[in-house]
Amino acid sequence: MSHAVVVPDTSSFDAHPRVAVISVLIKDDHVLLARRANPPDAGFWGFPGGKIEFGETIAQAAERELSEETSIISEATGVLTCLDAFSRDENRPLVSHFVLVAVLCRWRSGQPHAGDDALEARWFALDEVDEARLTLSKDVAEVARYAATRQQKEVCA
Question: Per-residue pLDDT for 21 more than 80?
Answer without folding.
Answer: yes
